[in-house]
Design a protein that fits this description.
This protein is mainly α. 86% of the residues lie in helices and 0% in strands. It has helices at 2-53, 64-73, 75-89. Helix 1 (2-53) packs across helix 2 and helix 2 (64-73) crosses helix 3. It is rod-shaped.
Length: 90
Protein backbone atom coordinates (compact mmCIF):
# COMPACT_ATOMS: atom_id res chain seq x y z
CA UNK A 1 0.00 0.00 0.00
CA UNK A 2 2.84 2.42 0.81
CA UNK A 3 4.44 1.79 -2.56
CA UNK A 4 1.23 2.77 -4.38
CA UNK A 5 0.88 5.92 -2.29
CA UNK A 6 4.48 6.88 -3.11
CA UNK A 7 3.85 6.36 -6.83
CA UNK A 8 0.70 8.48 -6.64
CA UNK A 9 2.56 11.28 -4.84
CA UNK A 10 5.34 11.25 -7.44
CA UNK A 11 2.83 11.20 -10.33
CA UNK A 12 0.89 14.06 -8.73
CA UNK A 13 4.06 16.09 -8.30
CA UNK A 14 4.98 15.52 -11.95
CA UNK A 15 1.52 16.60 -13.09
CA UNK A 16 1.71 19.69 -10.89
CA UNK A 17 5.07 20.67 -12.40
CA UNK A 18 3.76 20.14 -15.94
CA UNK A 19 0.68 22.25 -15.14
CA UNK A 20 2.83 25.06 -13.71
CA UNK A 21 5.08 25.09 -16.79
CA UNK A 22 2.05 25.18 -19.08
CA UNK A 23 0.40 28.07 -17.18
CA UNK A 24 3.69 29.96 -16.95
CA UNK A 25 4.22 29.85 -20.70
CA UNK A 26 0.67 31.10 -21.38
CA UNK A 27 1.05 33.84 -18.78
CA UNK A 28 4.37 34.83 -20.32
CA UNK A 29 2.79 35.09 -23.78
CA UNK A 30 -0.10 37.17 -22.41
CA UNK A 31 2.23 39.52 -20.52
CA UNK A 32 4.45 39.86 -23.58
CA UNK A 33 1.41 40.82 -25.69
CA UNK A 34 0.26 43.37 -23.10
CA UNK A 35 3.72 44.91 -22.85
CA UNK A 36 4.02 45.23 -26.63
CA UNK A 37 0.54 46.78 -26.86
CA UNK A 38 1.33 49.36 -24.16
CA UNK A 39 4.72 50.20 -25.66
CA UNK A 40 3.11 50.44 -29.11
CA UNK A 41 0.49 52.85 -27.78
CA UNK A 42 3.21 55.00 -26.23
CA UNK A 43 5.20 54.90 -29.49
CA UNK A 44 2.14 55.91 -31.53
CA UNK A 45 1.46 58.81 -29.17
CA UNK A 46 5.09 59.97 -29.34
CA UNK A 47 5.31 59.66 -33.12
CA UNK A 48 2.03 61.55 -33.51
CA UNK A 49 3.43 64.37 -31.34
CA UNK A 50 6.69 64.40 -33.31
CA UNK A 51 4.95 64.46 -36.69
CA UNK A 52 2.57 67.16 -35.46
CA UNK A 53 5.45 69.37 -34.37
CA UNK A 54 7.00 68.98 -37.83
CA UNK A 55 3.72 69.95 -39.47
CA UNK A 56 3.07 66.53 -41.01
CA UNK A 57 -0.57 65.51 -40.78
CA UNK A 58 -0.04 61.75 -41.06
CA UNK A 59 -1.34 60.54 -37.70
CA UNK A 60 -2.45 57.13 -36.47
CA UNK A 61 -5.25 56.95 -33.92
CA UNK A 62 -4.87 54.99 -30.71
CA UNK A 63 -7.74 52.53 -30.69
CA UNK A 64 -8.39 48.83 -30.22
CA UNK A 65 -7.17 47.86 -33.70
CA UNK A 66 -3.92 49.80 -33.50
CA UNK A 67 -3.19 48.37 -30.04
CA UNK A 68 -3.96 44.85 -31.28
CA UNK A 69 -1.67 45.38 -34.26
CA UNK A 70 1.17 46.66 -32.13
CA UNK A 71 0.55 43.92 -29.55
CA UNK A 72 0.72 41.15 -32.12
CA UNK A 73 3.51 42.53 -34.33
CA UNK A 74 5.46 44.77 -31.97
CA UNK A 75 7.17 47.87 -33.32
CA UNK A 76 6.97 46.51 -36.85
CA UNK A 77 3.19 46.73 -36.41
CA UNK A 78 3.54 50.40 -35.46
CA UNK A 79 5.58 50.99 -38.61
CA UNK A 80 2.94 49.12 -40.61
CA UNK A 81 0.22 51.39 -39.22
CA UNK A 82 2.18 54.49 -40.25
CA UNK A 83 2.87 53.00 -43.69
CA UNK A 84 -0.88 52.46 -44.20
CA UNK A 85 -1.59 55.99 -42.95
CA UNK A 86 1.08 57.44 -45.27
CA UNK A 87 -0.33 55.48 -48.20
CA UNK A 88 -3.77 56.89 -47.46
CA UNK A 89 -2.21 60.35 -47.18
CA UNK A 90 -0.90 60.15 -50.76
Amino acid sequence: MEKQAGVLVIAGACLLVLFMVRVKSRLEVFLNFCLRAVMGGIAIYGINLLLGSWGISCAVGINLWSLLTSGLLGFSGVFLLYAVAAFGFL
